[in-house]
Design goal:
Blueprint lengths: L1 H15 L9 E2 L6 E2 L11 H7 L1 H6 L21 H4 L9 H17 L6 H11 L2 H11 L11 H14 L4 H24 L15 H15 L2 H15 L19 H12 L2 H11 L25 H19 L7 H11 L8 H4 L2 H11 L4
Antiparallel strand pairs: 1-2
Helix pairs in contact: 1-2, 5-8, 5-17, 7-9, 8-9, 8-10, 10-11, 10-12, 11-12, 12-14, 14-15, 14-17
Length: 376
């Protein structure tokens, strides 16, 4: 997948040129606050980079095999090929990666109208994302053994895709938004049924992390002005996380993490708490962060051909987007953008490995991290 080489080397060169990569905090002699020296330019997504990154969904969304179905089989008739079982989201190795592969394509098309692969991407999207195919996807979610399919990671990315389509001011965006909406409505309904029954938050660094799913779901609830959905998310987030303190971020990462359990809580709580309440909460949750102290190291990957071990590249990118989002909302945390910059600029060049284990999904994480990068 040479496109990853061109895309990510370009990003690396632009981001790291004339820069130092040290992010060691420097304490002043007369204050407890930490002075972060801005040594790493915050990377930005450019048209050139977008043209290269677009090759990922271009290749991915119609690549049916290899495929990890995640499917509960109740009878022999349930054994169907991926493109029959999921005629929209059958590519990119698994359903959720296919969903955020579409999100990547739409995001790049929407933000870069001059994208070189525009017509080819639109052709693939229009071929698969049809009303008839969405009906098949809905029917699958209504089978007795698969009502919780892709809960909640795939659900969250489906809501993010719907939001991206809704806000794409174009003929294509309006058409595709309308087509996808019935499946999105099913996911919203499932989410609202599920959250009141979930007695305990799932605090892991992989797909089922409750805080990650709720953050994306909250974005959609606000966007769609669905107050019932929004209130449901906010109520459960407070139930789960409001009394949390001293999150053991030094324990992170676990070996397969692509999300930070501690930082994902920050991401949902900054969305739902009033400003003063949030600042008071985060001081207890991650002591020292209010002074610019966040004791995390960039995750290292030993083998990018291993589908689990390469998750750590995703962790670095998701950490970056959480920190960019925090600093964008509250400028007093702006010094944390240097930590985010270090994570993203040290990770992007590593994605050049010509292996589908990471290539089928990491481009989406790179695009979302770059989309959230805060200009300094």
């Amino acid at each position: 997948m040479k496109y990853l080489i061109y895309a990510l080397v370009a990003i690396s060169v632009i981001s790291c040129e004339n820069s130092e990569t040290s992010t060691t905090p420097e304490k002043t002699a007369k204050t407890e606050n930490v002075v972060i020296v801005d040594k790493i330019p915050t990377p930005q997504l450019t048209l050139e980079q977008a043209n290269n990154l677009a090759q990922l969904p271009l290749h991915c969304i119609e690549t049916e095999y290899p495929n990890k179905m995640g499917h509960v089989t109740a009878s022999p008739e349930d054994q169907k090929r991926p493109a029959v079982q999921h005629p929209v989201f059958y590519g990119c190795f698994d359903w959720h990666s296919a969903v955020h592969g579409y999100w990547s394509a739409v995001t790049l098309l929407k933000n870069f109208p001059e994208l070189e692969a525009k017509e080819e991407l639109l052709q693939k999207i229009n071929h698969n994302l049809t009303a008839q195919n969405v009906e098949v996807e809905i029917a699958y979610f209504n089978t007795a053994n698969n009502t919780s399919f892709e809960r909640t990671y795939g659900w969250a990315w489906l809501l993010k895709l719907q939001q991206e389509l809704d806000t794409w001011d174009s003929v294509e965006g309006k058409k595709l938004s309308t087509i996808l909406q019935p499946l999105t409505d099913v996911i919203v309904s499932r989410y609202m049924e599920y959250l009141p029954k979930l007695n305990y938050a799932i605090r892991v660094g992989e797909h089922s992390n409750t805080a990650f799913g709720m953050a994306f779901a909250h974005d959609y609830a606000v966007h769609s002005q669905n107050d019932s959905f929004k209130n449901s998310i906010e109520t459960r987030a407070r139930d789960f996380y409001l009394n949390d303190s001293d999150c053991p971020i030094s324990w992170e990462p676990s070996g397969y993490d692509f999300l930070s359990p501690c930082l994902e809580e920050v991401d949902i709580m900054r969305r739902i708490l009033p400003e003063t309440a949030f600042h008071n909460w985060i001081k207890e949750f991650l002591p020292g962060i209010e002074s610019g102290v966040l004791d995390i190291e960039i995750g290292q990957v030993s083998d990018r051909t291993d589908g689990k071990l390469v998750h750590i590249d995703g962790l670095n990118l998701s950490r970056a987007w959480v920190l960019y989002g925090l600093a964008a909302q509250y400028p007093q945390y702006d010094n944390l953008t240097e930590t985010a910059d270090a994570h993203i600029t040290n990770t992007l060049p590593n994605l050049v490995a010509d292996d589908y284990a990471g290539g089928h999904w990491l481009g989406s994480f790179a695009i979302y991290a770059l989309q959230n990068a805060k200009k300094k």
